[in-house]
């Protein structure tokens, strides 16, 4: 076996250390600022609920911004997936500020969306700017993209280990490329620590303590996982359905106005703002008391409608809401502690929707404590089994169904 000269190894170490630092610190800083801004616009909306009536105007502005400046960035997360599988052009730098601004507009005026898509996009955008400048190979560029995604995810949710595994697991369902996990993990932790230095306002969930491992509980958890997988399938189907229906309105401006009016009507009929935005208060409350059984379904409808007509943000936090409220409601019928059920539901619907069960199980441990680990793992894998081939990212490959390996 040949051994690389020490000068080559040193050069590689310096190069990758520089890349990791240049990605982790800026992305962590941006995430902190984005979280503060997101909290601010949410508070403004809740104090001025009449802003919801201006949702169509916000939609028109979002479509205009993407038509004028968006280029390929309107593909969102799918653009990142495509550039990973078939590297061609650098991700446009405009993608980062554009997705941040339009996500804030979506939340300020009452759209039901998340924030993960935003973090993934600005993380990958910042990371990919090094690919061209440093003339990285295709393999190196893929590592850099994973680092950027992990940095955004980790600094936004406060789960660096899950973020690193998610970034790797996302690109190759069934055959994850864990040889790139180390630089991805370092970048994720650096971005996370940077966000903590800025005192980013992360949500703190209750620590779930399980004193005894009960075999009977495992059966219930597997059953819950299966239900969460079906729920993920419903979420994906609803997104596709709304997408097909509104594509009949070929003009993007008319499409988002028509959809916005429908959203406003729904919100007025519901008489509540708990289903718009991130829905974090409801998620936290789900751990303490059972939620209404229809909450998860309303969130599915409003979120898929919001994203299908052209608003921005992401799906993950709404998926947390859907899984947590579903499991919380089922606690009235399942003889398992409500906190454990809610913790598993929180990540299982997400797992079924993104086909990343291992990352989601790790996230449960980071958010709720090590006691939920085995339960979350069972719930997440059960959800993926029945969630179907398609996930929320249409460009995601699944080698179990014949995708060709990347080169």
Tell me about this structure.
This protein is an all-alpha fold and 407 residues long. The chain has two domains: 9-197, Orthogonal Bundle (Clc chloride channel); 215-386, Clc chloride channel (Orthogonal Bundle). It contains 16 helices and no strands. It has helices spanning 6-47, 55-70, 77-85, 95-108, 116-133, 138-157, 160-171, 181-197, 215-246, 252-270, 280-286, 295-308, 316-330, 338-354, 357-368, 373-386. Helix 2 (55-70) runs antiparallel to helix 10, helix 9 packs across helix 14 and helix 9 (215-246) crosses helix 16. The two termini are 24 Å apart.
Class based on secondary structure composition and strand pairing: mainly alpha
CATH superfamily of the largest domain: Clc chloride channel
CATH class of the largest domain: Mainly Alpha
The beta-strand count equals 0
Report how far the terminal alpha carbons are from each other: 24 Å
Question: Can you tag this structure with a few keywords?
Answer:
Clc chloride channel, globular, 407 residues, 16 helices, mainly alpha, 2 domains
Give a quick rundown of the structure.
The protein is mainly alpha-helical. 68% of the residues lie in helices and 0% in strands. The protein starts with 5 loop residues before the first helix and ends in a 21-residue tail after the last helix.
């Amino acid at each position: 076996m040949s051994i690389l000269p020490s000068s080559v190894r040193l050069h590689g170490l310096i190069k990758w250390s520089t890349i990791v630092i240049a990605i982790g610190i800026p992305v962590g800083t941006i995430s902190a600022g984005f979280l503060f801004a997101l909290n601010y616009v949410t508070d403004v909306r809740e104090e001025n609920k009449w802003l919801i009536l201006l949702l169509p105007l916000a939609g028109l502005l979002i479509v205009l911004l993407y038509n004028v400046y968006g280029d390929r960035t309107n593909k969102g997360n799918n653009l990142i997936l495509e550039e990973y599988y078939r590297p061609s052009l650098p991700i446009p730098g405009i993608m980062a500020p554009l997705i941040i601004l339009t996500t804030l507009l979506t939340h300020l005026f009452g759209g039901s969306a998340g924030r993960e898509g935003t973090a993934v996009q600005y993380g990958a955008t910042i990371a990919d700017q090094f690919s061209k400048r440093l003339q990285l190979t295709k393999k190196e560029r893929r590592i850099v993209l994973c680092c950027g995604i992990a940095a955004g995810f980790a600094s936004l949710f406060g789960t660096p280990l899950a973020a690193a595994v998610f970034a790797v697991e996302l690109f190759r369902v069934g055959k994850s490329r864990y040889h790139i996990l180390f630089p991805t993990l370092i970048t994720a932790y650096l971005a996370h620590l940077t966000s903590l230095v800025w005192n980013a306002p992360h949500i703190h969930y209750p620590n779930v303590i399980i004193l005894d491992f009960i075999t009977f509980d495992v059966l219930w958890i597997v059953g819950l996982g299966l239900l969460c997988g079906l729920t993920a399938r419903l979420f994906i189907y609803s997104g596709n359905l709304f997408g097909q229906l509104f594509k009949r309105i070929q003009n993007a401006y008319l499409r988002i106005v028509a959809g916005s009016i429908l959203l406003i009507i729904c919100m007025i009929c519901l008489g509540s703002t708990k289903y718009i935005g991130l829905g974090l208060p409801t998620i936290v409350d789900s751990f303490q008391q059972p939620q209404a059984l229809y909450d998860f379904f309303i969130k599915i409808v409003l979120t898929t409608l919001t994203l299908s007509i052209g608003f921005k943000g992401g799906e993950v936090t709404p998926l947390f809401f859907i899984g947590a409220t579903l499991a919380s409601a089922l606690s009235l019928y399942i003889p398992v502690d409500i906190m454990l059920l809610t913790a598993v539901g929180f990540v299982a619907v997400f797992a079924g929707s993104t086909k990343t069960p291992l990352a989601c199980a790790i996230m449960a441990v980071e958010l709720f404590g090590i006691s939920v680990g085995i339960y979350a793992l069972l719930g997440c894998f059960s959800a993926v089994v029945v969630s179907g081939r398609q996930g929320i990212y249409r460009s995601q490959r699944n080698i179990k169904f014949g995708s060709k390996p990347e080169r």
